[in-house]
Amino acid sequence: MTSATPPVDSPEPQTDEPAEGQQTPPTAAASRPRLTWRLVVPVVTAAAGLMFAMSFQAAQGSDLRADRDLPQLIMDGDAKVSAKAAQLDALRAEVDTLSKTSAPSDQRLASLGERADALAETAATTKVRGSAIEVTLDDAHRTVDSLPDGFTADDIVVHQQDVQAVVNALWASGAEAMMIQDQRVISTSAVRCVGNTLILQGRVYAPPYRITAIGDVERMQRGLDGDTAVGIYKQYVDAVGLGWSQKSLGTVEFPAYSGSVDFQFATPLE
């Protein structure tokens, strides 16, 4: 015989729901972003205002980008370098004149002058005259779309190494003096590529590039014909139409070199 067990009332589940009309406090995760934005927004606004104020102060009503025409900046810089070079030549001539007239009996000065005169030809600080040869290099006058397969835009422009190849071949063939464009150069002069232009001794040049050398013309011609690097350039002349011309000029006169002759990264051997 069994007896019935009285049912046990189950406790009602406890909940954390707020009572009606009671607000739930924000959790830490929810309140942190609000606190961050409250701090960041004023800082960003203040920084932006400061930048606008600085821009206005610098512009003074003008266009800040108006002077960013790169080609014009290059031409202006080139003109300044040319003017400074002319000023340097004039000052050197004035110093020479004053030295000869104001201190004719100074033995030490006279000795230094004699040494300078002896080195002038080697340092290219005097004018030189003689038979010359001229080589002209130029970009190919064609579009990239017209190139044969395997060639790129770099193959139709004259590069630094192309000019340097001609210069080295002429020096190696006994050139006594040389000019690139309108500047006298010496053995330590450097030609550098700047985009699709060349910079030489602080001045920028666009093609065509003229290299002129005084010396034994026939020997220099043979040197150009037998130089490997020049031969590679001529292959591109035939393949894509790079510019190349070579001619004798007869007797010409080169101006004196007016740049610095001091070594900056090397010392002469004793």
TrEMBL record:
InterPro entries: DUF881 (IPR010273)
Region span, Disordered: 1-31
Coiled coil: none
One cellular component (GO) term of this entry: plasma membrane
Pfam families: DUF881
Recorded family membership: Belongs to the UPF0749 family.
Protein name: Uncharacterized protein YlxW (UPF0749 family)
